[in-house]
Amino acid sequence: MGLFNKDIKTFDDLLLHGLQDIYYAEQQIVKALPKLIEKATNRDLTKGLKDHLEETKNQITRLDQAFKKLGQNPNGIKCPAIDGLIEEGDEIAGEIADKEVLDAAIVGAAQSVEHYEIARYGTLIAWAESIGHDDIVRFLTTNLNEEKAADRKLSTVALRKGVNRKAAS
Amino acid sequence: MGLFNKDIKTFDDLLLHGLQDIYYAEQQIVKALPKLIEKATNRDLTKGLKDHLEETKNQITRLDQAFKKLGQNPNGIKCPAIDGLIEEGDEIAGEIADKEVLDAAIVGAAQSVEHYEIARYGTLIAWAESIGHDDIVRFLTTNLNEEKAADRKLSTVALRKGVNRKAAS
Question: Residue A74, exposed/middle/buried by CB under 10 A (0-12, 13-18, 19+)?
């Protein structure tokens, strides 16, 4: 949730902070994904990560629109959670020599990031609904549905496209 | 996933590392939950967090058994992701003066931790299944189901037990 929490006085402040948190997170993900794409070898995994990189850029545009609806400039706030999640992914991508074990680790790292976003968007949607920001709910719901689909695709890659089978063999 | 990733050579190593990661995470959660329980005011939220603290202790016992099945001593590895998630929760708990806005923020922080665990247990179960560790799959599935139930209870507290409504009023 980042710094400056002492500025959070109202539920609207909390929603704005949450948006700034996920805005920062999405930007860090755009920077982090190319490194994972470069390290991945399974073709379905590489394609899935590339597709999600493009989706993430569109998600940032939707967040820009959500800030606009609140009359605020889009702005990220450093968030230790996503930094930690990405740090884990980077460590893995740098340190595992076996390509097939690395692919399995990359799927796991990517799914932990997806779940962070699923949690955050779920919370933000509940908050925006309570306040009555229906237009913001719509932007966030589109992003949430994309994150859930990305998570399901990663499970498919791991379980049916051979990532885990090859890592185990 | 913590340090020492250069020791990950096989899929078994990756599974062991994942277990060490979630073992550390569960232990940090046991330390962090009492602080959130102390700060929360909504009675259903406090009860839910207290119940989950007890569940988490049982989950650690199940992880002890999973390590035993692998012939390993239970051991945690510092994991930047859970540290970042808990740091966010601590910051929020320390900095928001309005009790009802704070309750809503605590639900959000707790759900982001739940989703981290849901992601990790999901990944670990898939890995353990691929390797053929059916007994470990059972322990981890029990933990996963508890995390999913805890996440659903937090949504209920936020949406139907008045946390978000009061924060918005």
Answer: middle
